[in-house]
Amino acid sequence: MTEKERNEYEQLKEVPVDSQQIRAGRILDMRVDRVQVYNGSLATRELVRHLGAVCIAPVTKDGRIVLERQYRYPVDRVLTELPAGKLDFKDEDPLEAAKRELREETGFRASDWVFLGDFYPAAAYSDEHIRMYLARGLVKGERDLDPDENINVFTLPLAEAVDAVMRAEIPDAKTQLAILKAAEYLKREKRRDGE
Length: 195
What we know:
Layout: H1 3-12, E1 15-24, E2 28-36, E3 42-50, E4 53-58, E5 64-72, E6 77-81, E7 84-86, H2 94-106, E8 108-119, E9 130-140, E10 152-157, H3 158-166, H4 173-192
Parallel strand pairs: 4-9
Antiparallel strand pairs: 1-2, 2-3, 4-7, 5-6, 5-10, 8-9
C-alpha cells in the first residue's frame, strides 16, 4: 500500500463499535454491525461474511472456453456460467480450490494456471472475494459432482463467449468478468509473442 493509499484508507475507514450475528449458515454468516464513520457519528451496516470463492476460465488448445448451464434457485433461471465454487475452509489455497472445482464440475484438469485477479461481487454488503483463473493445458476426465449439483457442460469459441457477454446473454457477473479478462489476457499474450 502506498503512502497515499494508506492516508486515504485512514481517512475513509469505518471503525466497528459492536457486531450482532443474525445467522450462521453453512456458506454465509449474516451480521449487523454498528460502526463509527469519518465524522464520529454511528451508522449501521448489514453485512454477509463469506469464506471466499474461485472462478475458472478454462480455455482449450483450439480456443474454446468450457462453460456450464445450471439452474440457480435464487433467480429461478438456468444460467450460463464458468466453473466456480466456494472455498471449503477459510485458509484453503484458492488455486487448489480452483483445481478441485474444475475437475468436479467439468472433469477437466489443467496443467497451466494464470491468476486473472480478484473480484468483490457485492462489496456494499458482503466480503465475498472471488479469485479468478485462466486454465489451459486441459485434459478431459471424469466429473465428480456434488449430490445436489446438476450441470450441463459445453464449449464455445472464446470470441463467441465474449460476444454473448456483450449482447447481455450471460448475466452472471463472475462469468462476464472472467471471460473478458481471459480473452484480453490471451490477446495480449499473442501480441507479446509476436503472433
